[in-house]
Each structure stands twice: as C-alpha cells, then as structure tokens.
Amino acid sequence: MMSARLRADPLADDTIARMLGGGEGPQWETLAIVNRQLAQWQTNAGLAGWKAGAGVPAPVAAALEDYAAAAMKLPDWADPAKIARAETLFMDMSMTSCTLLFCASLPECYVVPELAGVLHAAGQLEQHTDYRIRATAAMIFPVMLHGGLLGAGGGVAQALKVRLIHATIRYLMLRGDPAGALQHGGAVIPAQPPQGEGLHQKLSAIGWDVPRNGLPCNQEELAYTLLTFGYVFLRGLRRLGIGLPDADEQAYLHTWNVLGHLIGIERALMADTMEQAEAMFTRIQARAGATSFAPDSRPALAAALMQEMENEIPFTLLKPFPVLLTRYLCGPGAAQSLGLTARVSWISRALFAISMGAVRAIDATVRLLLPQFSIARLLTRIAGYRFTSRVLMDQTRPLKLPDALLHQVGHALGAWQADPKAPDWMNAVERRMTGRATTPAAQGTVKC
C-alpha cells in the first residue's frame, strides 16, 4: 500500500477538484463563494438536506451538496455511551484542558517538520500565534461540548469545514488535484511569485516537494495531529498525576477517533488504547526525526507559542514556567526539536522542580484519605483560566463560531469557574488567585 504520507482524502479532494478544476489556475472568486456557503454550516441539524444558496454556480452547488450528504455520516462503530462520557470528562477537566492545550498538544503538533512547514505556510503562524490557538479552540469546543457529535450542537459541521480546508490547502499547494501530483512518483512544485496578498494566493505560490515531504495535510500528519489532542492530552494528565481510569481514557480516544473519521482519517490510523496510541505516536515522531525539512519552522512556531503565554504571566520569576512545563509534559526529545532547550534561570528552574515535586508528593499522600484532592488540578486550572481569559475570551476578537455555538461555549466557560471535583476551600483559593467573582452567576455569561 502507498505510504500514509502520500495518501490524502479522496472525498474532500474530489469535492475541491470538482469546484476548482474547471478553469485555468486557482479560482479565487470560486473559493470566496465556497467560503460564504460554508459559513451557513452552523449546526449538525442544518447539514441534513442542506442546499446551496441562489446564484451559486451549479458545479459548486452540486459538489458541496454531495460532500455534505456523504461526509456528515458518523461511522458505524461510533459508540454514543463513550461519546457522552467523553463530553462529561471534558466539562470536568475544564481549565486544565486549556493548560494542556497550550503546553502539550499544540507544541507536539509542531514536532513533525513537514506538518510545521504546512502550518507555517498556511498562515505565517509565528506572527499570528493567537490565530492557531483560537482556530483550534473553535474546533475543540463544538466537538467536545454536549451534543457536539450526536446532538444539536455544531461539532459535525465544524469538522466538515476543517476537512475541506485541508483539501483546499492541498489543492492550492500542489496546484491541482493530489492525484496529479503523485504521478510518476510525485512532483516537485516550484515556488512562484504570488498572484495576490491573500492566504490562498500565498499558498498557491510557495512550492512543495512531494517525494521528500509527502502530500500536504497527508494521512500520517492528520493521524498525528489527532493523537496530539487525544493521546497527548491524556498522557499529560498522567504526567501531572491526575490520569484517568482506563475506561475513561478509551472513551476519550474513541470520541476523537469519531472526529477523525469526520475529518477524513483512515480507521487503520486510529488508536483505541493508550498503548496503541503511544506506539503510533512514537513511530511517527521517530520517522520525522530521521528526516529534514528546510526551512525548519519548528523553533519559531514554538517560541511564538511560549511568548504568547509568557506575555500573560505577571511575575518575571514565573515567566519561564510555560517552557518548563512544556519540557516536562512533552519530554526532552520534543523540547530539542522545538528549540526549547535554552537555559532558564536556576531560580525559576529550582522553583518549578520543587513545586512539581511537592505537588506530586502532597497529592499522592492526601488522596489516600480524599480521592478527589489535587493541587496539580488546582494549579493547572489557574494557569488555564489565565490563558483562556486573555487569549480565547478576548471580546475584541470573538471565536469564529456561529452565534448559537458562541453562546454554548460561553455558558460552558462560565460553568468552568468552579471545579465540581474540588472542595469548597480549593475553589475559594482559585477564585482569589484568579480574581474571579464568588460564583459564576455573579459574573454573568462569559462572552467569547
């Protein structure tokens, strides 16, 4: 079988080719029409029987309608009970989820050189780090909130948009259908001057070496990215000493696998257990470590992400903590690949090491009497609240979600202001350290 790095997504690729393949060169106006139509995909229910608007060219309308009808179907193996459990877990873990997004999932996304190269090409993310963070949140929240995949939420609708975005990136970077770029062992697409200042024009101009780099957004990269938001998150909980029971981990992985199906990932490239996930994750990183990619965008992407977090930490002594926590959660190999090995002041390193050791020791001891007790959970919630309130909840830059989903996200974030697993005194400490109101109701609905 052809390498996963040379396999993409036939359904989505065929859809984009049907819409863009009728003329010579990239069709910028057609892409604008497609984007306007995709903006109508707001809820799962709205996808059923969806029809393109008046004035949409017939080939575009037919391609989008066929795609929506085929892609919105959940796989036969989707388990509603596991998905419901994962939704509950996501709500319970709340702000801790945000800390692990910043310090584990996103950094690990950058470790694979070709994937970092696509992320760099798709938006100059070193200069627009908050875009990547907010775009990721706009994907995660609709999927993981109640009803995101099985109910009236918007997880399926968001997933189908992301799937077409991946296919559009492939088509533009390869200047045509991926099938054409794979003929005769793969094509080398030369760089050329962009035909405009927009993102689509820039993507179409950068050039790409298929034999060396594989297809952009290929099956291996998609599977790896899925692991960073499922496996890496669960691994992070374990490393913090607040890991979940096996059944809960499997429910969480299962839900992300259902999302993987919706965004076009092959079933054979999904992991059902942590052991399978670890093996696949390690294998992909090992393959990535044995290849080179020029220019290497990974250090710049990671540095920009760390800087985004450091900007929100008020105390100089604590500003290195995002780097130190990322090293701790991702390990020395990832830190080396991301260029996060620069010296940190010994005071900050000592404070971090002492804090982590003390937290693990205290949690392990107190849990013998109080199983729900966790200082690690408290501290990661405080950090997550800081990052979330300053980056995701900035009311001057709303998340790009339909109004109904924004309201659902705001309600969920408001509910996250209290940890249901923590005793009242720990919630009181958290409120004091974050400066929040006494109760969620006192602050009203959180706006995104």
From TrEMBL:
Segments forming domain ER-bound oxygenase mpaB/mpaB'/Rubber oxygenase catalytic: 124-361
Q: Name one Pfam family in it.
A: MPAB_Lcp_cat
Please, which domain of life does this record's source organism belong to? Bacteria
The protein's name: DUF2236 domain-containing protein
Q: Which organism is it from?
A: Massilia agrisoli
